């Protein structure tokens, strides 16, 4: 008789969570899958292809009655549910309620009803803060979230909750995960000079799946999850290539459109440690850009080249750094620029 792993996946309607769900269902003979999160049109649409293969429970992570429905007799829990930027930064109380209190409640129920469960938590590179001057990052580096990064603050608090729990656990600090992104004002908060090490959605999801059978090597440890040396680039170079792929021309925005410090990202100096255990990396920057290129038809690329000027004007209107600079908003400017770059001599 096969040993079926009973898996609880939270945040399965998100970009990475949905890819994890997809990969779990590709090996459905190995897993009994339960997904949990708030009901929304996006969630219903995301789960529709799998509804015959999984158990779907909609609910509130801070509602004990809802958690009772999903926390019994689980072998593995993959926790990706949470409030993300920019909403987390705009509504820090909501982010704390869902990300921190919600995780505390989830763990409390698991400790009671699935005490032997293996808890895999998705953390973030943002916990290290600004690494422009020291881009090579290791797990033991000081956690120092950037000014105004409420999301990173909540991640650090949750990591402490996980480590102090009675469960067996592992924390994966994800780098920038590429795939499924939509246009957002966050794109302007990151300095163009930022060193980046991306990972694709497929590779990140594969790491979580492979972790199920590597519990002993991962137990009670924290790892940095990145794509490795072949996935390294600067943010400016990355955007330039993406603009080219989409037929948007050059990355020619005026000065102060992008922040100049106080974000996060870098290169994972110790990222190969997780790869050696999980063997999850299949993509490189080259394969990522090739895949993105294939998604763009000639007709769409031509249309984009025609409307690129108004689209860039729209993008520029999203820039918080530029808006702060134009409005001479000292408090906001300090979040995006060093004082000596905007104050008059």
Offer a quick outline of the entry:
With 345 residues, this protein is α/β, with parallel strands linked by helices.
Could you characterize the architecture of this molecule?
The chain has 345 residues and is an alpha/beta fold. The protein has one domain: Rossmann fold, CATH 3.40.50.720. The chain contains 14 helices and 12 strands. The chain has helices at 15-26, 41-47, 64-68, 87-90, 92-113, 150-163, 201-211, 215-218, 235-245, 272-278, 285-295, 298-317, 320-326, 330-336; strands spanning 5-10, 31-37, 55-58, 76-79, 118-124, 136-137, 168-174, 176-178, 195-200, 221-225, 232-234, 267-268. A 7-stranded parallel β-sheet has the order 3-2-1-4-5-7-10, with helices on both faces. A 3-stranded mixed β-sheet has the order 8-9-11. Strand 2 (31-37), helix 2 (41-47) and strand 3 (55-58) form a beta-alpha-beta unit. The protein is globular, with a radius of gyration of 21 Å. The termini are far apart. 41% of the residues are buried. The mean pLDDT is 94.
Summary tags:
single chain, alpha/beta
Largest sheet: 7 strands, parallel
Radius of gyration: 21 Å
- Averaged pLDDT, please? 94
Sequence stretches where pLDDT stays below 50 over 5 or more residues: none
**CATH topology-level fold name:** Rossmann fold
- How big a fraction of the residues is strand? 15-25%
Number of strands: 12
Could you give the order of strands across the largest sheet? 3-2-1-4-5-7-10
H/E element order: EHEHEHEHHEEHEEEHHEEHEHHHHH
């Amino acid at each position: 008789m096969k040993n079926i792993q009973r898996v609880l996946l939270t945040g399965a309607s998100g970009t990475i969570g949905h890819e994890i769900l997809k990969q779990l269902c590709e090996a459905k003979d190995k897993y009994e899958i339960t997904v949990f999160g708030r009901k929304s049109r996006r969630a219903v649409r995301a789960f529709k292809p799998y509804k015959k293969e999984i158990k779907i429970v909609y609910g509130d992570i801070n509602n004990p009655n809802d958690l009772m429905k999903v926390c019994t007799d689980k072998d593995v829990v993959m926790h990706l549910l949470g409030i993300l930027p920019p909403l987390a930064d705009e509504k820090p109380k909501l982010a704390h309620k869902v990300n921190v209190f919600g995780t505390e409640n989830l763990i409390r129920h698991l400790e009671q009803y699935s005490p032997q469960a293996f808890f895999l938590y998705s953390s973030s590179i943002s916990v290290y803060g600004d690494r422009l001057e020291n881009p090579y990052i290791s797990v033991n580096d000081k956690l120092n979230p950037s000014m105004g990064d409420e999301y990173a603050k909540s991640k650090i608090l949750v990591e402490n909750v996980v480590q102090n729990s009675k469960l067996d656990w592992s924390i994966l600090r994800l780098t920038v995960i590429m795939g499924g992104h939509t246009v957002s004002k966050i794109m302007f908060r990151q300095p163009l000079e930022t060193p980046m090490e991306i990972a694709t959605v497929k590779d990140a999801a594969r790491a979580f799946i492979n972790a199920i059978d590597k519990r002993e090597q991962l137990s009670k440890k924290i790892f940095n999850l990145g794509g490795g040396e072949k996935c390294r680039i600067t943010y400016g170079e990355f955007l330039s290539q993406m603009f080219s792929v989409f037929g948007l021309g050059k990355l020619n925005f005026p000065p102060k459109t992008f922040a100049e410090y106080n974000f996060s990202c870098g290169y994972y100096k110790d990222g190969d440690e997780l790869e050696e255990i999980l063997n999850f990396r299949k993509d490189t920057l080259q394969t990522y850009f090739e895949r993105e290129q294939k998604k763009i038809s000639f007709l769409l690329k031509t249309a984009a080249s025609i409307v690129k000027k108004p689209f860039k004007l729209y993008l520029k209107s999203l820039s918080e750094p530029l808006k702060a600079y134009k409005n001479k908003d000292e408090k906001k400017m300090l979040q995006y620029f060093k004082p000596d770059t905007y104050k008059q001599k």
